[in-house]
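Sample entry copied in:
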Amino acid sequence: MSEVSLIIGASGGIGRELVSQLAENGDKVIAVSRSGFADDKWPENVTSVTCDSNEESQIAEVVKKLKSDDQTVRLAVCTVGMLHGEVDGVDVQPEKQLEALNEKQLSAYFSVNTIIPSLWVKHLVNVMSDRAVLACLSARVGSISDNRLGGWYGYRASKAALNMMIKTAAIEYGRRAKGTALVCYHPGTVDTALSEPFQANVKPEKLFTPEFTVSQLLKITRDLNPKEGPYYLDWDGEAINW
């Protein structure tokens, strides 16, 4: 039985950096993405897996392969998420007022930000190591108690729903995968394609590189106690109110 680190959404800015840092640390890494890594030359300890997480059957196949290879997951990070862009022909942009709400956009937000991570949490419960971490990228704006500005309805709601899924799953993981700490991680504003259109009002010292936020995530999750979770943490390791 061997342990691996599993990075879901590994072709994005944060996902790619996670693969890079973990591989450099000597971890055996499985890099999962929808598009694959045809142009990348990863070291021998990285295995690239193509998986469309919109199809649950493909998620199940990845986990089935882990089992058949006698592999358990020491660290799983789901970096899948979206704030803006095109999803199935729908142009998604954060809503500034109620009139901007529409069914297709809301469905897109929940599909990517809530449902996909939740399905990974569902299937991973049987392959986590005795001492493990399962983290999903959340956002501070997903905090219900901390919402003072409003706006960004779909993004906020889908991240709040993700937080609730993780908080609820942690109860069942506490029975079935007792050694796994579940984490909702707010990476801050990271200089990636997700935040690019919204960086104008961000102070330079608050615009983080993928290298920084990934190193913070790996440091913060290194010694988490599963019995004290689930955790909702920011890039500095500070707890965020659910």
